[in-house]
Amino acid sequence: MKVIAFVVNNLLVRLYQGGIVIRGRDYIPLREAAVAAKEEGISMVFVPSHKSHADYLVLSYVLFRLGIALPHIAAGDNLNLPILGYFLRKGGAFFIRRSFADDPLYTQVFKSYVGVLLQEGLNMEVFIEGTRSRTGKVMMPKFGVLKVIVDSVLDGIVKDVMIVPVSIGYDQVIETGSYIDEVLGKPKTPESLKSLLSAASVLQLNLGRIDVRFGEPFRVKQFMELEKTKRSSFDPISHIQDRFLLLRALGFKALADINNISMAMPTSIVSACLLTVRRRGLSRCELVRRIEWLSTELNRRGISTHGIDRMPTSELLDRTLHLLGSSLVGTRTANLPEPIYYSRRRVELGYYRNQLIHVFVPEAITCLALYASVKLSGVRGQHQVALKRLRQDVFFLSRLFKREFIFPSGSLQDNITRALQTLSEGNVLKVHGDVVGLSEMEIDRQCDAYDFYCSLLWPFIESYWLAALSLQIIPHSADPSQGFIDEYVLLTQAQKLGNTLFLQGDLLYYESIHRETLKSAYDLFKDTGVVAQTPKGIRVATRTEIAQKDVSSRFSRSARKDRDVLREISTSYDQESGKQERVEEMLTRELSRFMKPVDHFASDDLSHAFRSGHVATLMRRAVASMSEDDLAKVQKAPKIPTDNGEVRQMQRDDPASYPDWRDSSTLRPKL
Question: What are phi and psi of 461, to 5 degrees?
Fold first, then answer.
């Protein structure tokens, strides 16, 4: 073990010359919890965030140095490589398949193995996100391994288990380059020793430092008793439905704790400042000012910004820009009184920005809801909206992003109230009775903070808008046995469509074609019944199917709320237009209300845009670019609206059938 520790120490020192930072006030309660767990003979289950393969080494190394028993790590079998797999096993890892629900024997063996570990009081390490985050933010929980652990407690196999949330933050993540290739559509290459060694070229670089934070440990039984006080007739030991609710609540609590204890790394702060401005770049003085403002806002919310308060901001900026490198952040100095900094690779910088986005989600949603209502009014200088209308839009956006973000604990109403209070204290918004609007101070400072909050979510809004728009590729059919498309093909074509729209200015944020965000949007559409998932692929549901669908699954309450939102939106559009729209048109129109305007667009009539040839042409060309194999995965060629409003079958081998390019003036609204 000492030999492994020596190797890991030298590896991490060469990679992260800034060292590993641990708060002293984290160590003392962790040490006390470890002693208590050992005396009681129960296991500690460490639940860390997962951004890099280095997470395995970092946490084990830290626990070794703190004198806490090393955990047995549930690792994916993709890391069971020659040489590397041997060292990982020696460090406590055991390898499991990504999915084994269809293999009863494997499932039973795995449950028995975990049960033995827990009965022996051995510590475990579980990555609840399931895989490394390709977005930078904490992902939705996967409950496989955690379910086995919770079941072991509820079934009496072990008397209790202690859960320890862990946040691991990096100035720079080793695999960021490969992540960006994946999310932009490049097929993922399987892990191999060769790829890891090629990545080892970063050993010659200084990737900054690592920050490790431990959350307050909590026991499964103690958490169960707390949940009982919140719910009536709650019995997870006897009722499967209640057991799942407990598991879900525990998983989200662990992730919420990770977010709460996470450190705002300097690379994340600088990236957020560069990506949330309306300008082409920022002068050095302005960037320093924004860093200081953002650091103050983070501290006001209880998020630590280690280093910013210990050195001059300009010095910290120089250090951070050196870490990010000129390939990510460009600098212009010629004929300028001071340097101008600008983003060169938005998607990669977006990865670091997303590491702190969870801090501002409630405020960002509130500002975006205000923005949509102000834009809809069409009155310049109008910066107020009725509180009731604001709450409706906040509710819609919260349901929309339920698969994107881990929201703070509490009801939606509580989150809205807290967000309004925080924005009021920051002099961004002002509440006058039943009316909410921008404060005079915020208007005087050119809406800098307001734009910051909106800009955090605009890329995600564009992604969901693009996902809804791409559903036009799927052929509509009232026959449930027809009208399917393979989801992988749909994702690929959606990214091609997004690339085209971005290059011609219809999308403002290149990160909106992020593959993981598009997948989250499609998953949401499945939950709400907009699309149906079958072995053949996915198909778009009709409005009638959404209205009649009876949800009897464990997510029924959530899904009914989502469909209620869809029905409310669809009824509103039916009354406005006097006709029924296709589901994806309705969603696209609704999402366009929250999108940042582009000056040369003038109309909000997206339905007309579909029929006027602009987007319809892109759809035809997207399908026309499909390979024969991909096209074979689509049941019947998509029917795309033509420029005369009729629907006709697209002939893939007939370029003459494509209409001419049209002016895009009807695609998106202008404020």
Answer: -60, -45
591-649, pLDDT tens digit by residue? 888 887 654 333 344 433 443 345 555 555 555 566 656 655 555 434 433 333 333 33
Helices and strands, number each (H, E), in the chain:
27, 18
Cα separation of 549 and 173, whole Å? 44
Percent composition of the chain: helix, strand, coil (DSSP 3-state, to 5): 55, 10, 35
CA angle 426, 430, 434 (to 5 degrees): 145
* 310 CB neighbour count, 10 Å cutoff: 9
Residue 61 in contact with residue 1, Cβ under 8 Å?
no
Give the pLDDT confidence score for residue 232 in this predicted structure: 81
Q: How far apart, in whole angstroms, are the C-alpha atoms of residue 631 and residue 435?
A: 52
Extract the tokens encoding 98.
Answer: 């990504």
- Contact (Cβ atoms closer than 8 angstroms) between residue 317 and residue 288: yes
- DSSP letters, 589-629, are HHHHTTSPP-TT-----HHHHHHTTHHHHHHHHHHHTS-HH
Planar angle of CA 617, 623, 627, nearest 5 degrees: 145
Contacts of 288 (CB under 8 A, 6+ apart): 313, 314, 317
Q: What is the largest CA-CA distance in the chain?
A: 79
C-alpha to C-alpha distance for 522 and 533, rounded to whole angstroms: 10
